[in-house]
Amino acid sequence: MAAPARRLQLTLALLKPDAVAHPLVCEAVHAAILRHRFLIVRAKEVRCGAEQSRRFYREHAGRFFYQRLVEFMASGPMWAYILAHENAVPLWRSLMGPTKVFRARHSDPDSIRGAYGLTDTRNTTHGSDSPASASREIAFFFPEFDEQRWYEQEEPRLRCGQLFHSTQERLLGAQPAQVQIQGSAGHHCCPCPQRCPEWICSGSCVSSHKSESCCPQCC
């Protein structure tokens, strides 16, 4: 008898302004997310003003890098993801690699930061450091997302592979009756959120949605 699937965990992931400024880096990070079989529960482009950035990083207030970090995070658009996986928090942090880019390049060159990070501030991605931080950070960027409801109603069915895609709400949800998977060989998920913001994936295309925002290679 196969072992029961482990409970899914949520984490928040950010593609920072330095990553979003380079579409090829966006593609590579998105491909890494799918390759490691994360479920992308929600995704959206965000812009933070200086005050929002201060609130998000308030735990670092007073440290020498705080103002530089705040200014950088407010310097351009980012992409925010809610990711689900059995061990989403530690797995995403492992995939990102060390915060310090010099260390990442030498100790974990295949990590996201090792491959694409520029400096300790411009290090491509952010990830929650604990389940408690994940809950707080998800609420910060996705205030409409009901985490408790997701764990009670969506997570058990997602864990069993029962998926549906809502293009209106941009979420990957649980289908109570049957799995609804659409698409064909000619339809796949755009790897770049800048070009095709309507996708939500679980490693293969859960649904194909053609819109004016999609790049022609996708749709």
TrEMBL record:
Biological processes per GO annotation: CTP biosynthetic process; GTP biosynthetic process; negative regulation of cell growth; negative regulation of mitotic nuclear division; UTP biosynthetic process
CDD domains xrefs: NDPk6 (cd04414)
Catalytic activity: a 2'-deoxyribonucleoside 5'-diphosphate + ATP = a 2'-deoxyribonucleoside 5'-triphosphate + ADP
Keyword annotations of the record: ATP-binding, Kinase, Magnesium, Metal-binding, Nucleotide metabolism, Nucleotide-binding, Transferase
Biased composition (Polar residues): 120-132
Active site: H126 (pros-phosphohistidine intermediate)
Matching Pfam families: NDK (PF00334)
E.C. number(s) listed in UniProt: 2.7.4.6
Superkingdom as given in the UniProt entry: Eukaryota
Residues reported in the UniProt entry to bind ATP: K16, F65, R93, T99, R113, N123
Protein name per its UniProtKB record: Nucleoside diphosphate kinase
Organism: Geospiza parvula
Gene this chain is encoded by: LOC115910213
